[in-house]
Write a structure and sequence with these properties.
With about 675 residues, the protein is α/β, with parallel strands linked by helices. Among the domains are: about 5-240, no CATH class; about 425-575 and about 580-595, no CATH class. It is built from 18 helices and 30 strands. Strand 10 and strand 11 form a beta hairpin. Helix 5 runs antiparallel to helix 18, helix 11 packs across helix 15 (about 550-565) and helix 15 crosses helix 16 (about 580-595). The protein starts with a helix and ends in a 7-residue tail after the last helix. Residues about 1-25 have low confidence and may be disordered.
């Protein structure tokens, strides 16, 4: 963190709100052009035109063939709260959007792809759109700043509040201006930052992934992001002090139903002694001599598991407590910004922030119109192997090949990675198929759709959303008894290639329908913050007429594939690539639904993952000498995998965390 940020945080001088907002809603005919940046690269535009109390917004960006295209018209009341809103266009997955809201004579009505409603209002309330531009966050911040107590009810449900944090002077190409930092609580798991200009109008929304800022001001993103990150770090430090307990004289857990990950069986009435960060002893109740003053947990009737692994994540700050609360003590990050990932990892490792152990996969992508938002773009063997070496030197565990990499680079990448002790995983690059990738040196195939695409030789460009839609259309017909499929499964087994299905992602894509609660998250929806919960009814991929049944059958065929792969001896790992913690639980439920016994699934998510990552000597099972990563569940997930959601205590590196307290910190209700 720079001295500038320390200074800004310590001497913020807040100008009176009225001075910043005087008549800003009444300016006429002003149009502002914004850039939309994905990982720092311009990928779209946001155009906002104000005419009196009316705002017209065009917002669009492209992310590997996905991305929204939205046109909105918002009419504000004298209090800055919308009285009318209409939005049309396409959402991120290109499904149609038609959203409407109106407030007149105390009667409020709204309708979008997930919900509709009517209510009579006595006091002010803010309708926050389901499909929206970033500017709506700025409109909400300005309205909250005017509201009594700086709080407003949200429609359809929830409440938002704002904290006005102070001013920052930014510079770009010799231009200077002052912007103000607002932090809104009540929309998600963590507060949302937004920046307003001197008049109180929307200026920017910046993040490590997506940012929107006026054209010509892109160089200011890093400055604003650094201020936001300083707030985030301070919050994480406070949580680490308040929500993590380190036993002084060790910890003993007694009466547990202990899951033996080696044999995938339960051992009744067991005691586990932890000293420092290590499991010191494991035995029957009463068989272990305990140190004086040891902390104790009575686990009678509960199940004690090794810490869970999520083998496919893309870490963000909110993921630390969400992972630990869910019992996920180790994760594998499958592509992220190098600096931001290593900073998060260091904070988790040091205990400065609450979060899991982090294993890292470094992305390799090729340039092109569908390239992933990364700076690691390689076109030649020399560039590719240079980046492999860089990842090895930085302590990465593997590389991840992405969709735009030239097929001819796969073999030199794999050779260099293996020489450096790194594993090779990834998507299947456009112009080749999974069997070619395995022959070229892949150790792991990322996402189950890549397995299916191996049998659709006419789908040659897997960079586009066709890698989802073609599997949704055709997957139902895949014959696992055909010679082609059996030969490929045997190839995977013989080459010891791992498959990372992330099947919950495809459940959401193929089965979710607008207006219906997502089956992936139905069990936990009522525990989530209201504005997060409503997004779970937005639907998945747009479904062509008459194809709903086919899409559902294709998802079932994915579950069949998981069963076949497991029965044939292909190693599976459980990863999510979606909402942290909760999605891993669903992933494990789907493996059981596919036909894998629950104890086998628990082994996949514990010792199996540790073996794949070559750290089974330290993690993955509850054995003396291994690191003390443990999960206490108030249920029997070995008999009913759904009980994996009933996490009570999580121990990472010998430090105790209460699941309910961690969830409460991020606005999630406990499972109990």
């Amino acid at each position: 963190m720079t001295k500038l940020v320390h200074l800004l945080l310590s001497i913020f001088v807040v100008t009176p709100v009225s001075a910043l907002q005087s008549d800003s809603l009444l300016s006429t005919g002003s149009t502002v052009h914004f850039s939309v940046l994905l990982k720092g690269k311009i990928v779209g535009s946001h155009v906002s035109t104000r005419n009196g109390n009316e705002i017209k917004i065009h917002f669009e960006y492209s992310d590997r063939g996905r991305g929204p295209v939205l046109d909105s018209r918002i009419v504000l009341g004298p209090d800055g709260i919308p009285v009318s809103l209409q939005t049309s266009g396409k959402d991120y997955l290109k499904a149609p959007v038609e959203e409407h809201f109106s407030r007149e004579a105390g009667v409020t009505e709204w309708n979008n792809k997930a919900e509709s409603g009517t209510t009579s209002l006595i006091g002010p309330a803010f309708y926050f759109s389901l499909d929206r531009s970033m500017e709506e966050l700025g409109i909400l911040a300005a309205a909250l700043a005017r509201a009594e107590g700086k709080r407003l009810s949200l429609l359809p449900s929830g409440e938002a509040s704002v904290e006005i944090l102070g001013d920052v002077e930014i510079e770009s190409d010799g231009k200077r201006r002052t912007v103000r930092h607002y932090e809104i609580s009540g929309l998600g798991f963590l507060p949302d930052s937004v920046w307003l200009d001197e008049t109180g109008a929307f200026f920017a929304s910046v993040g490590s992934w997506l940012s929107v800022i006026p054209e010509g001001w892109g160089t200011a993103v890093d400055t604003l992001l650094e201020v936001q990150q300083a707030r985030s770090i301070a919050r994480e430090r406070q949580w680490a002090k308040e929500l993590a307990m380190t036993p002084v004289n060790g910890l003993v857990i007694t009466g547990a139903r202990l899951f033996d990950a080696d044999s995938a069986v339960i051992r009744e009435r067991m005691t586990v002694l932890v000293v420092g960060d290590t499991i010191q002893a494991v035995g029957k109740d009463g068989s272990i001599k305990l140190p004086k003053g040891v902390s104790q947990i009575d686990a009678s009737g509960k199940t004690l598991l090794p810490g869970l692994w999520d083998m496919h994540t893309h870490l963000s700050p909110q993921d630390g407590p969400l992972n630990i609360a869910a019992g996920v003590t180790s994760i594998r990050d499958m592509a992220n910004g190098i600096e931001s990932l290593m900073t998060l990892k260091d904070r988790f490792d040091s205990g400065e922030a609450i979060g899991p152990r982090v294993r890292m996969a470094g992305i390799l992508e090729g340039p092109g119109p569908f390239a992933a938002p990364t700076n690691v773009l390689v076109s030649t063997p020399e560039q590719a192997t240079e980046w492999v070496q860089k990842y090895a030197e930085m302590g990465y565990d593997q590389v991840k090949i992405y969709s735009s990499v030239k097929p001819e680079l796969v073999k030199p990448i794999a050779l260099s990675a293996h020489e450096s002790g790194l594993r090779v995983s990834g998507h299947i690059p456009a112009g080749m198929w999974a069997e070619d990738a395995v022959a070229g040196g892949y150790d792991e195939i990322t996402h189950l759709n890549m397995f299916f695409l191996n049998f659709y030789k006419d789908v040659t460009d897997t960079r586009t959303p066709a890698r989802f839609t073609e599997v949704a259309k055709r997957g139902a017909e895949l014959d696992f008894e055909s010679g082609e499929v059996r030969a490929f499964i045997n190839m995977l087994k013989t080459a010891n290639v791992v498959v990372d299905p992330t099947v919950t992602v495809f459940e959401s894509m193929f089965r979710d329908r607008p207006g219906q609660l997502s089956s992936s998250y139905a069990m936990i929806a009522d525990r989530l913050p209201p504005q997060v919960r409503r997004t779970l009814s937005g639907g998945g991929l747009p479904v062509p007429d008459g194809m709903e049944g086919r899409y559902a059958l294709s998802f079932q065929r994915m579950l069949d594939a998981i069963k076949h792969l497991h029965e044939e001896g292909v190693t599976l790992v459980a990863g999510t690539d979606a909402l942290t913690g909760f999605t891993l639980h669903r992933e494990l439920e789907l493996y059981v639904e596919a036909g894998i016994p629950a104890p086998e699934v628990l082994r996949i998510a514990t010792l199996g993952s540790a073996r794949v990552m070559n750290c089974e000597d330290e993690l993955g099972s509850v054995v003396p000498g291994k690191l003390a990563d443990l999960v206490l569940v108030n249920g029997r997930p070995d008999e009913d995998i759904r009980d994996i959601r009933k996490v009570e205590k999580v121990i990472k590196n010998g430090v105790i965390h209460d699941s309910a307290a961690l969830y409460a910190a991020v606005g999630v209700l406990s499972a109990h």
